[in-house]
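We were asked to recover a plausible sequence for a given structure. The inputs and outputs are reproduced exactly as logged, with field labels preserved.

PROBLEM: sequence recovery
POSITIONS: 183
GIVEN STRUCTURE:
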């Protein structure tokens, strides 16, 4: 809805100016259906925002009307594989084939690819083996409020340190990366 509002690029420009945010750090997620609903308007708005330095990701890729010609025409930098495909990649050959094809196509077009809805190690292993650029989902964390992010990162760092220390203990003679600190 916001994307279709008259003056949307001006609103984005104003917010970037007010916040001092480097536009290269702002990535907007848009859907296939948005791109294809009014191609001329979508293209014009995207061009204005790209000129400011913003980047775009196509969210829920593969679930809408996939006219692949828009991948050439529109300035997109990332595809996000919909969770409905990721959910079944370990058990459903069709989901695995679609996911593999999306990753391969994205790589061939020099686009980054993100898998949404990663919830378990089997999915993570499949995506890692197929060189998916990034993943998101409950496998790592539930969605967090802004004030919870720092605590989560600290806890994850502590867990990584403990795992590294345990690995060092299991391999005598191997240098320990840091001392184990107990609180």
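RECOVERED SEQUENCE:
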């Amino acid at each position: 809805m916001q994307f279709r509002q008259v003056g949307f690029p001006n609103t984005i420009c104003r917010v970037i100016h007010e916040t001092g945010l480097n536009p290269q750090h702002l990535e907007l997620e848009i859907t296939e259906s948005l791109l294809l609903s009014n191609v001329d308007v979508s293209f014009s708005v995207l061009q204005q925002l790209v000129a400011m330095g913003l980047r775009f990701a196509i969210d829920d890729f593969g679930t809408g009307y996939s006219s692949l010609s828009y991948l050439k025409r529109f300035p997109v930098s990332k595809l996000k594989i919909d969770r409905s495909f990721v959910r079944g990649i370990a058990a459903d050959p069709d989901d695995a084939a679609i996911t593999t094809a999306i990753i391969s196509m994205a790589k061939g077009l020099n686009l980054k690819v993100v898998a949404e809805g990663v919830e378990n190690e089997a999915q993570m292993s499949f995506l890692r083996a197929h060189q998916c650029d990034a993943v998101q989902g409950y496998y790592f964390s539930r969605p967090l409020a802004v004030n919870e992010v720092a605590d989560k990162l600290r806890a994850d760092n502590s867990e990584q340190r403990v795992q590294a220390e345990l690995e060092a203990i299991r391999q005598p003679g191997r240098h320990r990366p840091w001392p184990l600190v107990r609180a």
